[in-house]
Amino acid sequence: MTQDELKTLVGQAALAYVEPGSIVGVGTGSTVNKFIDALAGIKDTIAGAVSSSVASTERLQALGIQVFEAADVEELAVYIDGADEIDRAGYMIKGGGAALTREKIVAAQSRKFVCIADESKLVQTLGGYPVPVEVIPMAAQRIRRQFAALGGSATLRLKNGAPLVTDNGQHILDVSGLKITEPLAFESEVNQWPGVVTVGVFAFQKAHVCLLGTEVGVKTLVF
Ligand code: 5RP
Predict the structure, then answer these.
(1) What CATH number is given for 3-122+204-222 in this structure?
(2) 193 CA to centre of ligand 1 in angstroms
């Protein structure tokens, strides 16, 4: 199976976690796009969605799924999202699609985080994938030096030759060269740095379940 087919498989499998009549938390990315497409097939059985990005909102609305503001919904039963890396404890690196801040917000208001990923995303230790960090632009240079002191190398993410601007009007640093052996401690520390909006390590908002697309079908990991 191709990676795209594995993404389709887990996107469809995630429908099993959608409660009839509920508002569903929806992440961002190519795997989630498969989930959104599958969700359109059962849209008459749900109340709608809370979305983690402008891109997902547009896709949901184009398929006729009502999108609610996160602030107008107290709690969600389930949040479905992809990951750039996930380890055997359910800790993740996220933000490859630059939506990490809103993803963490929606995940935090959800009772269950279901991660959907192809098997290439499962790792022993987080950090092979550069950690995305959303930052306030005036702090970016100082934050780069702070990562350098930890042994990391932070580069400003660009789009069409200019700094990428997130849905929140901020920039993204991608930090390579880190081996994140203690995700909770790492997330706590980096979150304290002035100018950091969100670090793309999801340890406090880790996955409860991962639907992993493999050559032999969908494997369910429960954390
Ligand atoms: C977006 C994310 C995505 O979940 C992550 O980048 C995985 O994306 P894809 O499903 O396209 O591989 O965190 O900010």
Answers:
(1) 3.40.50.1360
(2) 24
